[in-house]
Amino acid sequence: MKCKCLGRYATWVCRAVLAGSLLMAPMVTENFVTASNASTSVTTADEADAIVKEAKAIVAQPETFYTLYVGMPNSDFRANFSNLPGWKVGYYDNYKDPWITKKTASWEYKRTLPLGKRMINQDVYIKQLYNGSVYRVAVIFSGLDKGTGAKIYKEMYNVLKNRYPSFETSIPYGLIVRRDYTPTIQVSSGVHLQLLYYKNFKEPNNYEVAYIIDGGQAYNLY
What we know:
Shape: globular
Mean pLDDT: 81
Structural class: alpha+beta
Number of strands: 9
Helix content: 10-25%
């Protein structure tokens, strides 16, 4: 399975069918903005709008983004993420969480997006059973000013609350002021979702928005 890139923004179209899996992946079409193609002539407002649209596209499909989903086979993951221009890749072989007994691996994809005088960081984190299925995916926008952070969070939150009837009860709207408070909502058997908006405690003028899909319980990891 391979992904096709069309135009200035890479459009990924991927159908991953996993017979007998925990989840079946729907057709996914996402805008994957390539940092190296960013124009120097756009305004700050254009840049902010592009980041907000990118964030909204991430939550456009249930429990999946950038073709990633809980239960994705290692072969499909490697085929889709083997060559991504504009992204820095980090791999942690035999990654060991202190509370997980099974052997796992962790991937990190990083890029920067321009926003006026700021450079916004976008990080995609993927955890999988060692050479096996993906069980956790996350995307984090960091280095945001308060206004852009709030707008990204609001747009993503509205999409999710309209999809999941109990979303507002499970994950109350608003800025998180305690890092140990991380509300979740169960979206399918063994799979939980989080949307978090918080201030960087080390850099109080920077804000972060995190979107996490975790299927660790589906694989009896914790």
